[in-house]
Design a protein that fits this description.
14% of the residues lie in helices and 37% in strands. It is built from one helix and four strands.
């Protein structure tokens, strides 16, 4: 778990975030977009940890994808 800091807009309530492990964050985000999803946070590196992105499915369900470093 992590605290919701000042960088979270007030309109976003406390929530759980579901992460799916993928082999390639950028390719998976591109495929999700092709299939009607949307990317809200593009592929972003977390130094010493991996790469992630935040998406929604065509119905608006939010989720994240993650590839560990190394």
């Amino acid at each position: 778990m992590m605290a919701m800091g000042a960088d979270f807009p007030e309109e976003i309530p406390p929530h759980w975030a579901l992460y799916f492990g993928v082999d390639d964050v950028d390719a998976s985000a591109a495929k999700a977009t092709e299939l009607g999803g949307a990317v809200h946070v593009p592929g972003t590196d977390i130094p010493g940890t991996g790469r992630f992105a935040v998406l929604t499915d065509p119905q608006g369900g939010a989720f994240a994808i993650f590839t560990p470093e190394g």
